[in-house]
Amino acid sequence: xxxxxxxxxxxxxxxxxxxxxxxxxxxxxxxxxxxxxxxxxxxxxxxxxxxxxxxxxxxxxxxxxxxxxxx
Length: 71
Fold this sequence. Notes:
The chain is an all-beta fold and 71 residues long. The chain has strands spanning 7-13, 18-24, 36-37, 46-57, 60-69. It has one domain (7-69). Helix content is 0%, strand content 54%. It has a five-stranded mixed beta sheet, with no helix packed on it. A hairpin with a 4-residue loop joins β1 (7-13) and β2 (18-24).
């Protein structure tokens, strides 16, 4: 069974540097301020500082997510 993403998060550092994107699935699509992420390709842990929902495309929710790199 193939899982279809419910959302995509476009990650940025606090100073605006792009960190790539993360696909999220049903039940885990909304960012939460203060949550710690551990699934980055170029970083180990990052804290969600703020987010903004963008226009959806093809029924996938999109978010601009600003994170603070912890390690």
